Amino acid sequence: MDIDPVDLKILKILKKDGMMTNRQIAYELNLTTTPVHERIKRLRRDGLIRNYTIELDLKKLNKNLIVFVKVSLKEHSQEYLKRFEEDVQGIPEIVECFCISGESDFLLKVIVSDMEEYKHFILNKLAALPNIGEAQSNFVITEAKMSSVLGE
């Protein structure tokens, strides 16, 4: 799969505004709509574009607390790791989950309204999962940068 500079520009444009039309993208890149359409179709077919999503204003949804939680499991067999990954799928407060190296096994991104909701999440959801050894919370004070566009 070859990605050229035009493909990268298209990806950047779509990441910033996934609702931009092929015509608008073509105009911005000084191309016609047909090659832009074909490139986007290929990028989707090849799996570079997996999904189109929206970015929510968390504060307007009263989701004011972002927490990164480092989780260590008691047992580390493949079965336990896979089970944990499956279990977190059903917990809506966990918006991202990464299996990591280092002192912890997983890094979770948790979004809740406030400390009371986070307390409920820890006591009734995370701690209720089997095989949880330790959880260390890191609270976000300021979001200095957030982008999934490469090269920005």
Concise summary:
With 152 residues, this protein is α+β, with helices and mostly antiparallel strands.
Topology:
Blueprint: H1 5-16, H2 22-29, H3 33-45, E1 65-73, H4 78-88, E2 94-99, E3 106-112, H5 115-126, E4 132-139
Antiparallel strand pairs: 1-3, 1-4, 2-3
Helix pairs in contact: 2-3
Tag the structure with descriptive keywords:
152 residues; 4 strands; Arc Repressor Mutant, subunit A; four-stranded antiparallel β-sheet; single chain; Alpha-Beta Plaits; 37% helix
Please characterize this protein's 3D structure.
The structure is a single chain. By secondary structure, the chain is an alpha+beta fold. It has 2 domains: 5-45, Arc Repressor Mutant, subunit A, CATH 1.10.10; 65-139, 2-Layer Sandwich (Alpha-Beta Plaits). The protein is 37% helix and 20% strand. The protein has 5 helices and 4 strands, in the order αααβαββαβ. It has a 4-stranded antiparallel sheet. β2 (94-99) and β3 form a beta hairpin. α2 crosses α3. The two termini are 22 Å apart. The model has no long low-confidence stretch (mean pLDDT 93).
